[in-house]
Amino acid sequence: MTLCRDAGAPRRRFATSQPSGKRRAASAERQAPSGKLSRREERVGQAVGRRLTRLKERKAFPFSIRRQEPAMMGTASPMSSLRRNLSNTMNTAPDLSRAALTDSLTRSLDSAVAELTALSADQRARPLKPSRANPDIVWTPCDHFAHLIGVERYFNRAIEKALAEQPGAAPQPQADAPTGPREEAMAAVHALNDQWILKQRDKSFDELVAMAQATRAQTLALLERAADAQLTRRLPAPWGLATVAEIFALHARHTDLHLGFIRAGLSGTA
What we know:
Blueprint: H1 22-30, H2 39-57, H3 79-91, H4 98-117, H5 121-124, E1 129-130, E2 138-139, H6 141-165, H7 183-200, H8 205-225, H9 228-231, E3 234-237, E4 240-243, H10 244-267
Antiparallel strand pairs: 1-2, 3-4
């Protein structure tokens, strides 16, 4: 089954009809034709949606969520390791100057696109490791790429909102901001990540690249627009609080983290 189709391959849709007969049903259960979701994958997506609804009703989400884009980082690594990686990411004092951030953001995406383009279509669609939220959802390199895009879009909305609310504000402490994600909140985020990547699986690799480039252009525009004081404003993040500049710096490091997952998965060392 093609999870990240080539540009010329048929666009994959959610299944709309049920195959007749035990044999056809069993075959469809195992694998759908190229360009479609399997019945099992469709059911998994529906189950993820129901779980998200339940968690949303219980107000388990730590931050506001729109358009079903992920609020936190990758589901494909163990939670404790992930938190440690993210915390370390923000504790290694990257260069947060505007020029350094611009250079890092530009080079990071170009490098990621080049590395993923060098893979074969089969490699980009290869299942690597099950999701932390649902073992029936196995992330591929294209899923990791889509996840990176979704997280960047999420943070861009958060930064856009912060700049619009207080365009000239100096950084303010947020006493009620989260100091670490709750287990229930993380379960919601993991489910949200899965729902996001499932929704992107009908896109070709070229479409994902275009989406990533458009998102990065928006990120760079936000960076250029933000005043120096705004870059030091703190916002809620999965690991606690982070300045706007730290969030900009995170995108390149988050990309490196997931490219590492992809390399390990393809080499069989994950």
